[in-house]
Specification:
18% of the residues lie in helices and 38% in strands. It is an alpha+beta fold and 464 residues long. The protein has two domains: 130 residues, no CATH class; 325 residues, Porin (Beta Barrel), CATH 2.40.160.
Length: 464
């Protein structure tokens, strides 16, 4: 019996056996509960009343318990007939052959064994129906909760220590063994502080739902023929539909700006209604996709002039110890092509990762963006981004990882007097157990025309 079933069966069995109290006036509830959890040993037999120490059955049960080692302590007092039956079933439940005395015990307590077995079997069947009714047998429920405690220096009014969380619950279902229906529920309270998704030190893990549960992903992925995979979703992100993510940095993410494989505009991670297709054969991968960020908006919709849409094409090559990918993204940023000021732009990126034999991975990426209509006054200009990140896996201990990255803090522009701000971070991810990771980190972010922002945090991640 599964642990979940045992937890349900034990208290339910007690309730079903309660009407028998008239026939077993001094029924020992703890004894029956121990029996109901059939995978656990009966810890003790005491305060019994119907089968007395001078009865042959009592002596036989004592010898049975000693012979099979099926209880932690031998009987030391009288017991009810139902407790005797529970002990008998516990000792002989997995025995292939019984001797004459054991068969006599089975005959003696046959009615009680039948009642108990019928009650428990009925409950197990109901538990099975309950479990089957909750999820498909091919569904998997998993989740991640992240606690972040830390602070920054260099941001006015934000020197306080912050303690915030993010939780993601994933329900993955497959109907054929090759497809995937992904639903993710997310909640967090990052708010508008420096660690928020748009803050001065935005974290990759940041989400702000004001502690409410929101649907964060809803898409379906399925094979089309031998080498094609299609994805369609009402809420899907760009990287969900890419055949390859061309970076292994970071292994445990900290600052958001360093998680775009160096090509922040090409890999914008736009989210909304979308669809895509990926071709993968041998070492080659090619993807084509679109995301409409306003796809759920009744007045904008999918792939309209009024809506914000991106289209991405990616080609990647996966070697034995390296991966390299090139990407092209075009975006209208929600502005019509014939408007007075268009924010449409094209973006390119080239990124890759090289894995050394000693567990070290070296990651590098470069990207550039060109707007259709430049506007220097609004800083709508050509921009470049790049990053370099190194991860040492199993650094210090198995399961731990040390990560260091350096890159552009924002898209760099070719402007006179522009400071070309950079950012770096260092983190050490420590695997406390298979399900808990603690990651201290330090970072520094330069600002154009302003003081640097430095900060430190400790992120604790629980996987369940």
């Amino acid at each position: 019996m599964k642990l979940f079933q045992q937890l349900l069966v034990a208290p339910a069995a007690l309730g079903l056996l309660a009407p028998m109290a008239a026939n077993a006036a001094e029924l020992n509830i703890n004894g029956v509960s121990d029996y109901s959890a059939s995978s656990a040993e009966v810890k003790s037999i005491s305060e019994f009343s119907d089968v007395h120490p001078n009865d042959w059955a009592y002596q036989a049960l004592t010898e049975l318990a000693e012979r099979h080692g099926c209880v932690a302590a031998n009987p030391s007092g009288s017991m009810t007939r139902y407790e005797a039956a529970a002990l008998l079933n516990n000792c002989l439940g997995n025995v292939a052959q019984v001797n004459e005395e054991e068969r006599r015990l089975l005959n003696e307590f046959g009615p009680e064994l039948a009642v108990i077995k019928g009650r428990v079997d009925g409950l197990e069947a109901r538990v099975g129906e309950f479990e089957a009714g909750m999820f498909s047998s091919t569904s998997k429920l998993s989740g991640t909760t992240s606690f972040v405690m830390g602070g920054v220096d260099g941001v006015s009014g934000s020197e306080a220590v912050h303690f915030i969380y993010d939780t993601k619950i994933d329900l993955d279902t497959s109907f054929s063994g090759e497809d995937l229906l992904k639903t993710r529920i997310r909640s967090g309270n990052f708010g508008s502080g420096p660690f928020s998704a748009t803050g001065s030190a935005a974290l990759e893990v940041a989400s702000s739902t004001s502690d409410e549960l929101n649907i964060d992903r809803a898409y379906y992925q399925f094979p089309v023929g031998e080498n094609l995979t299609a994805t369609v979703g009402a809420k899907v992100r760009q990287d969900d539909m890419l055949g390859v993510w061309p970076s292994s940095y970071p292994s445990d993410s900290v600052l958001d700006v360093l998680t775009y494989a160096g090509a922040n505009a090409a890999y914008s991670l736009a989210e909304g209604s979308g669809a895509g297709i990926t071709y993968a054969k041998d070492q080659l991968s090619a993807s084509l996709l679109f995301v409409s960020e306003d796809g759920s908006d009744a007045t904008k919709g999918v792939l309209t002039d009024e809506g914000s849409d991106i289209m991405t094409a990616q080609v990647a090559w996966l070697g034995d110890n390296f991966t390299v990918a090139a990407a092209y993204t075009t975006s209208d940023n929600g502005n019509a092509a014939d408007s007075a000021t268009s924010y449409e732009h094209d973006a390119w990126g080239i990124s890759g990762v090289y894995n050394l034999d000693n567990g070290v991975s070296i990651n590098a990426g470069y990207g550039w963006k060109t707007p259709d209509d430049e506007n220097d006054a609004s800083n709508i200009e050509e921009e470049t981004t790049w990053s370099l990140g190194v991860v040492w896996n199993d650094f210090g201990a198995d399961g731990n990882a040390l990560g260091i990255a350096y890159g552009t803090a924002e898209g760099h522009r070719d402007d006179s007097g522009y400071d070309d701000p950079m950012v770096y971070e260092i983190y050490y991810s420590m695997a406390v157990s298979d399900n808990i990771t603690v990651t201290p980190s330090y970072f520094n972010i330069e600002q154009d025309g302003g003081d640097d922002i430095s900060g430190a945090l400790v992120k604790t991640t629980f996987n369940f």
